[in-house]
Specification:
This protein is of the alpha/beta class. It is 51% helix and 14% strand.
Length: 530
């Protein structure tokens, strides 16, 4: 096939906002700090160095050392945690939900993008150190988004309930999930490895946060990945003044609303702010804090506080306050000496709404980088695409458009009547001129006839296309079958499939291939041959 990548802009899978961001449209400049180029990291380094408090470093390292107690960690991760004490060490961060057994493939792509960018930056700026961070979304409560993963044609479900922060959720009952997964995997050395990895991750740890830390550490520990849990009292202490400010002044609502007003004329809005962008959390509770009748209330509960009472609670128990999607990025950037956040298109879209909130809080806004995306294809699939004369641009196309496009290419006839319609239009324009100079009452009749004739040609065009689709049905069916293999349910493979099925296909070498191929500062879909 002629190319092994396709640009995000031409893929058809990104919103106008992200396409314009990648194209560096000047009207978006006020919504971000620096565009992700290797040269721009120098300015980001200087700015973050000036604005990141030394005491935050000490708290961060202490929290990480505490969180990793009881875990066997690689010498590379241990070294990176130690490096974070140094003022010339900075982080590159991605965040993700605690999806069961990593969930969709793009979890891996996020982490690999983050690690590879650290490697690239170290080559360019050798006097600094760069640590890859995976911020676990342990305080999320959208359990239905994470309680399953797909293995080939099977959906592996964890049937339990969760009402609080998912990181605190007990792993009880996951032995049943392992039994289902094991029966799907079958036998073999790689299958045994995956079964044991699931068992060690989820059956040997008591909660989902610890299980996910173990799993991510097993997959990426040898690359020095540092895994951070934001559901941490000592880290919430750093965020305490900002929580108080949100409760007392509620300025983030105003700032994000202002940013949204700039965006909404041309783009869809990713998230909308609340009056108060905080949750109240306990082990089995995560509910919005609302302000009603001069009281701060916890939604759907009887909990209510005066301003004095809730500010005292923040002071004494900051771990009970959890930022929502509007304030979590601010929390991350307060805790970390971070230069760049790596996320998917949806994440970058809502980060672009937050620049003014960061300015208001005098916190450095990170560089925003759209993560690498990948399409995994077997040699057999690539040979089939070559035989059918398909490019990657063809396969990324909308299925119905691809169907029509290929029918026109296969046909011995010209199925596009644009030339005939244009000729007809010109003839009727002459008739309208004649009617205008002789009897203007005929103009309406001429225009009606023009519409009828054009519609007749369009109907002929559709009927001929339909007939040709029948003629080439077998070849077109092969194309559609191939596209459906690569784009399950006409969506991105990386959002459907789990790494486990490809791990088996490439004899455990999937991560090795990803580290070799992914280039974070090049925004393309990378096609990797298995």
């Amino acid at each position: 096939m002629p190319t092994d990548c396709i640009s995000y802009q031409k893929s058809g899978y990104f919103t106008k906002l992200i396409v314009d961001y990648l194209d560096e449209k000047p009207e978006l400049k006020s919504l971000h700090n620096r565009f992700p180029t290797i040269e721009n990291f120098k300015g980001q380094l200087d700015e973050k160095a000036q604005n990141y408090p030394e005491e935050n470093r000490k708290s961060l390292v202490s929290a990480l050392e505490n969180q990793y107690k009881g875990f066997q960690i690689s010498e590379f991760t241990k070294a990176n945690i130690s490096l974070l004490s140094n003022t010339k060490t900075f982080t590159i961060t991605t965040g993700h939900q605690l999806n069961l057994f990593t969930g969709p493939l793009y979890f891996l792509y996020k982490i690999v993008s983050t690690i590879n960018l650290c490697t690239t930056l170290k080559r360019e700026y050798p006097t600094y150190d760069f640590v890859p961070i995976y911020w676990m979304a342990t305080e999320d409560h959208d359990f239905e988004e994470i309680n399953h993963f797909n293995y080939k044609n099977a959906k592996i479900n964890w049937n339990t309930e969760s009402h609080g922060p998912v990181g605190r959720l007990s792993t009880e009952g996951l032995n049943n999930v392992l039994n289902v997964f094991a029966s799907e995997l079958g036998i073999g050395e790689n299958a045994t490895y995956l079964k044991e990895l699931f068992e060690k991750s989820y059956l040997k740890h008591n909660n989902l946060a610890d299980a996910t830390r173990f799993l991510a550490n097993e997959l990426f520990g040898d690359k020095g990945l540092v895994i951070l849990d934001g559901d941490d009292k000592s880290l919430k202490q750093l965020f305490l003044p900002f929580v108080k400010n949100e409760l007392s002044n509620r300025m983030s609502f105003q700032k994000v609303t202002e940013s949204n007003s700039l965006l909404q004329a041309s783009y869809d809005i990713q998230v909308n702010p609340r009056e108060i962008n905080l949750f109240y959390i306990e082990d089995n509770l995560r509910e919005r804090i609302v302000f009603e009748n001069n009281l701060f209330k916890v939604n759907t509960t009887k909990l209510a506080f005066s301003e004095k009472e809730i500010l005292e609670l923040v002071e004494n128990q900051p771990e009970k306050f959890s930022p929502n999607v509007i304030l979590r990025p601010l929390y991350e950037e307060i805790v970390l000496p971070n230069l760049c956040y790596i996320g998917g298109g949806g994440e970058i879209a809502y980060w672009l709404q937050l620049q003014s909130t960061f300015e208001m809080n005098k916190v450095t806004f990170p560089i925003l980088l759209v993560r690498n995306s990948v399409l995994l294809a077997t040699e057999k699939q690539i040979k089939k695409a070559d035989k059918l004369n398909l490019s990657w641009a063809d396969l990324f196309n909308n299925q119905q458009e691809l169907f029509t496009q290929k029918t026109k290419e296969f046909s011995k006839f010209n199925l596009d009547f644009s030339e005939q319609k244009e000729h007809l239009k010109q003839q009727f324009e002459k008739l309208i001129l004649i009617a205008n100079e002789t009897d203007k009452s005929f103009i309406g009749a001429v225009k009606a006839q023009q519409t009828k004739q054009i519609k007749g040609l369009e109907n002929l065009e559709k009927r001929l296309l339909k007939a040709e689709k029948r003629v080439y049905a077998e070849k077109l069916e092969q194309i559609i079958l191939l596209q459906n293999e690569l784009f399950p349910n006409q969506g991105l493979q990386e959002r459907k499939a789990n790494f486990s099925e490809f791990y088996l296909d490439v004899n455990g070498k999937l991560l090795e291939k990803l580290f070799q191929e992914l280039k974070p500062l090049e925004p393309n879909f990378t096609i990797i041959t298995l």
